[in-house]
Amino acid sequence: MFGYILLGLQHLASFENLLLVFAGTVAGMVVGALPGLTATMAVALLVPFTYAMDPIPGLVLLGAIYMGCIYGGAFSAILINTPGTPSSIGTTFDGYPMACQGRGEEAIIGATVGSAFGGLFGVVALIFLSPPLAAIALKFGPPEYFWVGVFGLTIISSLAAGSFLKGITGAAFGVLISTIGIAPIGGDVRFTFGSPAMQGGVELIVMLIGLFCIPELLTIVSRGIGKHQAVEYRRTKGVLWETVKKVLSLRKNLIRSSIIGTVIGILPGAGGNIANLVSYNEARRTSKHPEKYGTGLIDGVVATETANNAVVGGGMIPLVTLGIPGAPPDAIIYGVLLLQGLRPGPELFTARADITYTFMLALGLAAIVMVPVGIYGGRLLTRFVASLPARYLVPGIGILTIIGSYAIRNNYTDVILMLLFGVVGFGLRFLGFQAPPIVLGLILGPIMEGGLVQSYLMGQAYSSPWIALFVSPLSWVLIAMSAFSFLWPYIGPLKKMFQKPGGITPGGLE
Amino acid sequence: MTAKFRDHLGSVLLLAFVAVLWLQRDYITVFGGIFPDIVMEIMAALIVLTVVLSFTPYAAMKETEGTAKEEGKTVNWTGLAVVGVILLAWSVLLRTLGFALSGVLGFSGISWYLGGCRWEPKGIAWCVGIALAVTYLLIFVFVSLLRVPLPAGTIFG
Hints:
The complex is a heterodimer. Chain A is mainly α.
């Protein structure tokens, strides 16, 4: 293996490949920062170009774009409260409050260091642990996927600022929205109101832009600050090294988030969308000051950004070993591998090992390149956004939301839907329903439905069709994890209740 | 607006949404309805629970907190309505006018309104100039560099 790693390093050290890593990372960051343009889209757009290239430079470029794109989503999440990609949803929770407090640079530096750490961790796992970790992915069948979805929903307690009940109702709303369109099993056309344009369902990106971007834009307008800056900027001396030291001191957070990202990346169909939220929840749950999360705590930014970049390496594990893509961009990379005559499996680690290891190392190099480029570019971007008066920032966000929602499927209905969800999101926020649980419901809905209905079909062999959900030991592990995650926020207050002679007060269980 | 009123309003709206979807149910196979039906039932139960809890001391506590948070905040409702209408018009006109023209109109309209709606030639020229620059920069990036098609509009193309 070490011989192949050295060979990969040798390939990567060529001027052409180094330039491709740099260009790919920068381009990926730019695409990732634009709301509506996802890593999947960026990788897909590159496929025709890589077809004409040799396998090594083609894959190096794809890997760098993918890594840069996932990281780039943090910029817009921090600066305008709009996740550039679904993998950065959780970054808005603490990143944007930091930007509003004039600490945008600190948030960007935190996101950069976390992303680089997570990216490198995922690549190390990819290189050294591929075969055993890939075996885990094979153990997940439909019942386990259903329970993964349920486990994902239990993190609502972290996402629902204010009321847990409203958070879970919002998540149910998101899950219900995810059922619009053609059913994944059975093919029923559901809740389309007779419109053929709705048969494809509601695109996650459209809802994401609508629920995050439009309410933020309307909030800036509602503050009546047209001629003034919407985002504050405070120049702090020595912020770079102070923040780097601070982030590197969060060892447990970095390692935990990297593990979460890698493991979730391995599970086909999950990916950065879920990893960043689970990681945020775990960081908050294990913190000594969970109440500070959501107010502008760098730990929250580090948790989400570390996890989503660890997904890149994690998602490649089942791809290169079993030919199962872990996340949507991996599916496109799978196609590119086949186009280049590379068949995932043992052959990639023997006959074509030089290409495989060069590709893996390029992912790691992209994670390193992100640090100087991201810190420099991110600081410039922070200053630029902070210098913009609201009268230019608001229409600027507006035009990006329109492009982002249209570009996904070249569909006008998506633009109208995005606006509709924006108004609904603004109204629901006003009524106490937050956007993150709704989006979480939309992400987990298809995973849960696929798992539940397929389990129902598998259950035809038993006395009750639902028994299939409870047969495997892995299902029980996930049920236990879900129960633990759901009950955790109540354990602290209950302890206090038994310790205090006065008992529990109203609202004490929130 | 009190927290109790918000709870009730939110509950009524979401319940109406569930009811509309429930009435739309027209499954051909058993598999299409298993999951959405369960979700709708759970959601309806959660909404009812929210309404019930809004009459308890727990809600009163939340109401006090919410009222404290709201103090000192003024909302520019006129601005919200105007920008909302411009955004809606922008999205609707996208199909007819295309991205370039609707983009310039929408961008400069919002920019001019938020700048204080002044009929000064210099101010208007700035708004339109920046709108033109931003719109055509985006067209260059998306169409020329990234090969992402943007609507040309039924009038022009």
